[in-house]
Amino acid sequence: MADNVDDDSLYRIKEGDYVVMKRGDIFKAVQIQTKKKVIFEKQWFFLDNAVGQLYSTTFELASGGILQPRKPKDTESSTDTKGAGTDNRNIVDDGKSQKLTRDDIETLKEQGLKGQEIIQQLVDNSSTFKDKTEYSQEKYIKKKKKKYENVVTILKPSCRILALMYHGREPGKICHLRYDTLAQMLTLANIHASSKVLVFETCAGLVLGSVMERMGGYGSVIQMFPGGGPVRAGVESFGFPAHFHDMLHEFPICHLNALLAGTLDTAAKDSSADLKESDLAAEEKPEAEGQGGPEEQSMETNIGDGSHDPKKEEEEKRREAKAQEKKVKQEEKRKKLAAAASLLEGRNADGLVIASRFDPCPVLMALLKFLSPSRPFVVYSQYKECLVECYTKLREQGGTVNLKLTDSWLRHYQVLPNRTHPVLLMSGGGGYLLSGTTVAVELSKPAGSRKDEEPAPKRQKVTETEG
Amino acid sequence: MSFVEYSDCIRDGDVAIVYLGHESMTPVKVKQGAQTQTRYGVIRHSTDLIGRRYGSKVTCSKGGWVYVLHPTPELWTVNLPHRTQILYTTDIATITMMLELKPGSVVCESGTGSGSLSHAILRTIAPTGHLHTVEFHQQRSEKVLEEFVEHRVDHLVTVRNQDVCKDGFGVSGVADAVFLDIPSPWEAIKHAKAAMKKHGGRVCSFSPCIEQVQKTCLALSDHGFEEINTLEVLLRVHDVRTISLPQPDFGPEPSAQIQPDSTVKPPQKHTSIAVKTTTPPREIPGHTGYLTFATKPRT
Q1: Basic and acidic residues bias: where (chain A) (predicted)?
Q2: Nearest by CB to B236, which of A3, A376, A408?
Q3: Interatomic CA distance for residues B88 and A237, integer angstroms
Q4: Do B236 and A183 touch (CB under 8 A)?
Q5: Is B173 annotated to bind ligand?
C-alpha cells in the first residue's frame, strides 16, 4: 500500500477551515469557528466537535446543538418492517392511518429518541404500513428518514460540491449557471496549470474559484472586475491554501479603455505616483457615495472644527493616521494594478472565461484582444440572444474560428432493481455557452471572407417546414 | 508544444491542428522537410509551419489558406484517429468535474481506447498528477503510448496492457479517482476500490446500456460506495442563421379604400422580414452513455 503512513492529519478538520455541510442533497458552505452557532436546514448547532475529526464524517445532532460523530454501525441498522402487501388496492388516504399525533412525535423527540427510533415508532403506529408494497415501504422510510434523521456530513469543498451547492441554494447569485455548464466551460477553455487565464464573472466567485482549482496554484489568473471591487465570496469557500492567492490578480474593467489606449499610468515613478494616487482617490469617490453621505460627513466635521480645540487635535491625529493608512492602501492598490496591467499588456493570455449578468458582447470584444492567437475562450449567458449577437459580431470581425453556440441537457436517473427510470423532475435549462478559438488577425484582408460557417440567408418557406 | 503546456511557435516534432474550414480540421505531425496535402494545396512544413506562430494563417500552394492551431485535448478529441468508440467533450467535461480532477490528482482509467479522455485527464492533472491507464488490446495500448510520447505527456502516464477485470490497475491505494469504460464495469469495481486511496475518492463508470448501469450500481453499493448517482448529459448545438420570413398579402387596408381619390397607392409587394435566430441541427447524438458516479468512503 502506498499510504501505509498514516497521514490522516491532511484530512482532519481544523479550526478556520472552510467546509461544506451536507444533508441529503442539501449543501451549505461555512467556516469552522468554535463557539459559533450555525444554522442549517432550520436547525442550529455548533461545529466545535467537528474539529479534529476526519473530513466526510457524518455527525448526529444531539440536544444543545452538539455534534457527535455517527458510529459506522448506525448506517446499517434497518427498520423492522414485518411483511408487505402486493399492491395498493386496500390503501385509502383518509388521514387516519398514522396514530401518532404531531404532539406525540414532539414528545418522542424531547425524550431524546434518535431519528431511527422515531421512524420505527411511526412504522409501528401506522395502520397501513404493513399493507404497503415493499417498494412503497422503502419509499416511506426514506421520506421519514429525511425528516427525522438529524445528521450532517462535513465535506472538504470542491468545485463539484460548490457548484452543486450554489445551483441548489442560490442559483440567482450565479446567473443560473448549472454545474454541468460550468464543467463544460472549464474544459472548453482548456483551463490547466501554468497558463494565464482571464476571468470576468458575476457568479459570486464560483467560476473564478473553479478556474483557480483547475490551475492548482500554477500560472496566473486575472480577474477582470466591474464596479468598485472584485466580488469573490465564493473563492473563500474553496478554502485554497495561501499560495493559491499568489496567482490571483485583479484588474478593474473601468481602466480597460485606458490600458488599451496605452494611457493607463501605473509606473512606480515617484513623480507620477502622486498623480496616480489622486487618480485612484477620484475613482474611489463613487464608492464612498454609495455607502451614503460624504456630505453629511463633511457637515459633521465642520461643526467639530469650530468649537472644541482638544477634540480637534485628536480628530486631526486620527485623520492623519487614517490618511497614512489610506496612502499605504492606495500604494498597495496601485502596485496590484500595475502588476495586473503588466500581465495584460503582453496580450498573450491563454484563456478567457466570461460568465456574468452584463451584456457579454462588449466584454468579449474588449477582452479577446488580450488573448494570444490559437487560444480558447468561452462565454456563458443565461440568455441565448446575447450570445447570438456575440457570434454575429465575431463572424463579422474575424479573428476567431470554431465558434459554437451550445447548451447542455442533463438528466439524472433513479437506478434500482426493476425500478430504473429518469428522475421525475429535471432542470429546464442550464444556460448557454459560446466557445471558440482565437487566430491571428490579418490587417489587410477582411477576415471571414470564406463563407463556410454560415450559409447565405435562405428564404425559408414557412408553409413547407412543418409537415 | 505539449498537450499540457502552450507554446507560441511551431517547432519541429510538434503536432499541429490544421484548420481548413468549419468543422474541418486535420492533425499534422510537423517535420522538417515534410509536406502535407490539403484541398487548398500543399503545406511545406519547413517554410510554412516551423517557426511560425500558432494561430497564424498559412497560404497553401493553390492560394487557399488555412489556420494552424495549437493542439488541445478538445481539438484532439475531434481529430484523433478512431481505433474505438470515443468519449466526446461534453461527457469528458462532466467526468472531469464530477471526479474532482485537478493538478496533482492520481487517476486510474480503463480502457484507454483511442485516448480521447486520457488526454483530457492528463491536461487537468499536470504537472504533478499521474494517470494509470489500462488497455487489454495490445496494439491499442502501444499506439496510444506512441501518441503520449508525440504529445509530450508520457512523463505523466503509465500505460498497462492487461485486463482490468482480471488483473486490476496494477497499483493499489494511490488513486484519487477511477474511470471505467469497459463492457462489464461491475467486474472491475473491486479493483477500482483497491486502486483508490485509503481516505477515499471518486469513481465513474460510463456505459451505453441501462442493464450495465443496473449491475454496476449494485456492485458499487455492495462494495460500500456512497453517493451513487447516474446521469446523462447531451450537447445541444444551436446553429446561428439569418432566416427570411415572407409575410402574406392581406389585401388593401380598409382605411385606404375610404379615400378613393388618394393619389399614392401603396405598392402591393410581397414583403419578408429577416430574423437572426438559431436552428437545431437536423440530427444530433441523442445518446452517448450513462455516467454513474460514486464516492468511495474512507476504509
Answers
A1: 271-288, 306-332, 449-467
A2: A408
A3: 31
A4: no
A5: no
Separation between Cα atoms, residue A314 and residue A296, nearest integer Å: 20
Class of domain A159-266+335-467 as given by CATH: alpha beta
Q: Are B111 and B217 contained in the same domain?
A: yes
Distance between B83 CA and the closest CA of chain A, angstroms: 23
* CB within 8 Å: A440 and B55: yes
Whether residues B122 and B225 share a domain: the answer is: yes
**How big is the CA angle at A264 (ends A262 and A266), to the nearest 5 degrees?**
125
Cell of B49: 509551419
- What ipTM does the predicted assembly reach? 0.95
- Domain that includes residue B28, residue range: 15-71
- Residue B279, classed as helix, strand or coil, is strand
Q: Do residue A411 and residue B198 have CB atoms under 8 angstroms apart? A: no
- Give the A window 208-237 contacts with B, CB below 8 Å: 213-218
CB atoms near residue A271 (< 10 Å): 8
Contacts of B277 in chain A (CB under 8 A): 388
- Block residue for cell numbers 482532519: A12
Please report, rounded to a whole number, the percentage of residues in chain A having pLDDT higher than 70: 82
Q: What is the pLDDT of residue A407?
A: 97
What's the pLDDT tens digit per position in B154-201? 999 999 999 999 999 999 999 999 999 999 999 999 999 999 999 999
Residue B272 lies in a domain: no
Total structural domains in chain B?
2
- CATH pick for A12-156 out of 3.40.50.2000, 3.10.330.20, 3.20.20.80, 3.40.50.720: 3.10.330.20
- Hey, what's the torsion of the CAs at B89, B90, B94, B96, to 10 degrees? 0
Rounded-to-integer distance, Cα A380 and Cα A365, Å: 14
Kindly state whether residue B112 falls inside one of the protein's structural domains: yes
Q: For residues B87 and B78, what is the distance between their CA atoms, to the nearest angstrom?
A: 10
Examine residue B241 and state whether it is found in any structural domain, yes or no: no
The annotation status of B116 as a binding-site residue, yes or no, is: yes
- Give the A window 420-449 contacts with B, CB below 8 Å: 420, 432, 437-440, 442
Q: Is A192 on the interface with B (CB under 8 A)?
A: yes
The CATH number linked to B221 is 3.40.50.150
Q: Count of CB atoms within 10 A of residue B82's CB?
A: 9
- pLDDT tens, position by position, A221-274: 999 999 888 988 999 999 999 999 999 999 999 999 999 998 887 764 433 444
Is residue B181 part of an annotated ligand binding site?
A: yes
> What CATH number is associated with residue B33?
3.10.330.20
Instruction: Yes or no: say if A57 and A8 are a contact pair by the CB < 8 Å rule.
Output: no
Q: Is A384 an interface residue toward B (CB < 8 Å)?
A: yes
> In A, residues 60-99, which contact B (CB 8 Å cutoff)?
none
CB contact under 8 A, A187 and B89: yes
